[in-house]
Amino acid sequence: MTETAHATTPSLPGGEFLGHPKGLVICFFTEMWERFSYYGMRALLIFYLTQHFLFSDEIAAGIYGAYISLVYITPVIGGVVADRYLGPGKAVILGALLLVAGHSGMAIEGSQATEVIINGTSVVERDPFYLQIFYLSLAFVIMGVGFLKANISTLVGSMYERRDPRRDGAFTLFYMGINTGSFFGAIICGFLMQYYGFSWGFGAAGVGMLFGLLVFLRGQHLFGEATKPNHPEILKQPVLPGINREWWIYLLTLAGVLVFWQLMQYRAIVGGILAGSLIIMTFIVISYAFAKCEPHDRNRMIVALVLMSYQILFWSLFEQTGSSLNLMTDRNVDRLIFGFEIPAAAFQSVNAFFIITLAPLFSMLWIGLARRGWEPSTPTKFALSLIQLGLGFLFLVYGASIATDPTQVAVIWIVLLYLFHTTGELCISPVGLSMTTKLSAPKVVGMMMGCWFLASAAGNYVSGTIAAMTGSDTIAGEVTDPAAALANYTDVYTTAGWYSIAAGAIALLVVPLLRHFMHGIK
């Protein structure tokens, strides 16, 4: 069957705003507040682990990597449950409620860990009660992101036909909303942590998520039928006496929170679960593609899987931002600007600032190039993202090599790294969200969006392993040899930079093959 091009928007209530459906505005602000809470908390997390609970760099990196990988596994669950049962609307609301609970729990700081010497051995004493509250709060956040993130992206895609040329632009603007929240979250939570303590920073993240929930509740009618379950009668079917299927899903969700609570304390299991999930989901997608799809859709879904695999390398290196790069900024970057020392956590906003300023330009760039027939294909954009990621690391390493102080790097070099990483991110992340919705068979968009985030999870898990390689010796959370720490960071980042550039070059070589099997979709 031959497909025809459509540039129209499905019939939606509320009309348009600046050439896009008004529902995009609701998605923008809902995701903005959700990312305010998520990235505000993430900016503090590695410092909370190393400075409050006094975990070593290696253990803190492991906890961080396990957490952010689980955050990207759960959208598989949220996507499938929304596709089959709840619909995107109820899934987003459920996710927001869980996130409010999780971020609020993080605000319960508890007592500071202490390091004591017992029989000549350094021992860290932590309050087990508050440590468990911390792990449980992370579990609520993990499950909440799973239900909200995949489905809010699905709602963006639902407002556009598959060949609508505005899709990439819409997802880029949506991504701008994500990073507006990230920008203000890192700054506000970072400064609150610096001057008032961790509980204030985490508490602000919880308030931000509450605002996101209120925005979505106010504007969900603008999506028409897209938020509704495909088969609402299934939700009313009894599963147990007095409990229908919808409430059974909510109870299972809480049970899932308890599972993630334990997984955060047994992190070695997370890697096995992640590897198994990747294998199972790949098998399911390939089986569905060959059994249920006509040839063009089948080939497109296989290409989507290939492009998703690029994320593993990209995010394993990019996500050093919240772990090793965050610690390096605190320990080895001269943060004095006009006599004022910027909190290290606030530098997590630099990437978001570049997204906010560059995303509209990239959106206009893609549309302008498309009109002239010059727009790079999705596989080309992915390859360019890997090359730019590698260049960012190499510029930071160069900055460290010319530093007059062997323990301090000029702030311009960390900013330049974030600039290159941001331009790389704009070539893979918003484009990838759009790619997933337009290469996927219509009936399994939610599941494929979950697969997109599962591939992100794999990269995030590996990022923890890479971050652990940069670990330094510390006493009571303070690094003992700043010069040795900087040398270790630059060694790891040099290798990371060249590997990423080489992978991007190889990806450019296979672009023609992938384009052939995309059958006209760019």
Q: What characterizes the major β-sheet?
A: 2 strands, antiparallel
Strand content: 5-15%
Strand order of the largest sheet: 1-2
Q: Give me the number of helical elements.
A: 17
CATH architecture: Up-down Bundle
CATH topology: Growth Hormone, Chain: A
Uncertain stretches of 5 or more adjacent residues: 1-8
- Which descriptor suits the 3D outline? globular
Order of helices and strands: EEHHEEHHHHEEHHHHEEEHHEHHHEEHH
- What structural class do helix, strand and pairing data support? mainly alpha
**Secondary structure: number of strands:** 12
Quaternary state of the chains: single chain
Q: How many distinct folded domains? A: 1
Q: Could you give me the name of the CATH homologous superfamily?
A: MFS general substrate transporter like domains
What Rg do the Cα atoms give? 23 Å
Helical amount? over 70%
Features:
single chain; 522 residues; mainly alpha; Growth Hormone, Chain: A; two-stranded antiparallel sheet; 17 helices; 12 strands; disordered N terminus
Could you give a short description of this structure?
The protein has 522 residues and is mostly helical.
Write up what this structure looks like.
This protein has one domain: MFS general substrate transporter like domains (Growth Hormone, Chain: A, Up-down Bundle). 54% of the residues are buried. It has helices at residues 23-52, 57-106, 128-158, 167-196, 198-219, 232-235, 245-263, 268-292, 295-318, 324-332, 348-372, 378-401, 411-426, 429-439, 445-469, 482-509, 511-516; strands at 16-17, 20-21, 114-118, 121-125, 238-240, 243-244, 333-334, 336-337, 340-341, 409-410, 474-475, 478-479. A hairpin with a 2-residue loop joins strand 5 (238-240) and strand 6. The protein has a two-stranded antiparallel sheet. A two-stranded antiparallel sheet has the order 3-4. A two-stranded antiparallel ribbon has the order 5-6. Helix content is 73%, strand content 6%. The chain contains 17 helices and twelve strands.
